[in-house]
Design goal:
transmembrane helix, membrane
Length: 114
């Protein structure tokens, strides 16, 4: 082989490597831009969620029900039954049905006594 064939061979190899590196770099650049767009979108969603959390925290919180392992289970069951009965009566009042449903005068929760 003559010297100009070696120059031509190395020139083709260098140009080919440059094309491959350019293509890989361009793909990496596009993926980086797409990632930045997703990060921006995620930060907007996080800001919206933060606003919603602060709005929800401003509302009146529910009273937490605190029970311990030493509470009387019969008393807890009775309290739960009373809460359910109150909720049922309130719903019926709102619906305008009164306390009668399908011929019954009381609910099962109200009849249960422990």
């Amino acid at each position: 082989m003559t010297w100009w064939m070696w120059v031509l061979l190395w020139l083709v190899l260098v140009v080919g490597a440059a094309v491959v590196l350019l293509r890989l770099g361009l793909g990496l650049w596009r993926k980086g831009l797409a990632s930045l767009a997703e990060v921006e979108r995620a930060s907007q969603v996080a800001a919206e969620l933060s606003e919603q959390v602060s709005r929800l925290q401003a509302e009146k919180p529910r009273e937490p029900v605190v029970t311990t392992a030493f509470d009387d289970p019969v008393a807890l069951r009775r309290e739960r039954t009373q809460r359910l009965a109150q909720r049922t009566r309130a719903r019926r009042r709102q619906a305008g049905r009164g306390s009668r449903t399908l011929g019954r005068t009381t609910t099962r929760a109200a009849r249960t006594t422990d």
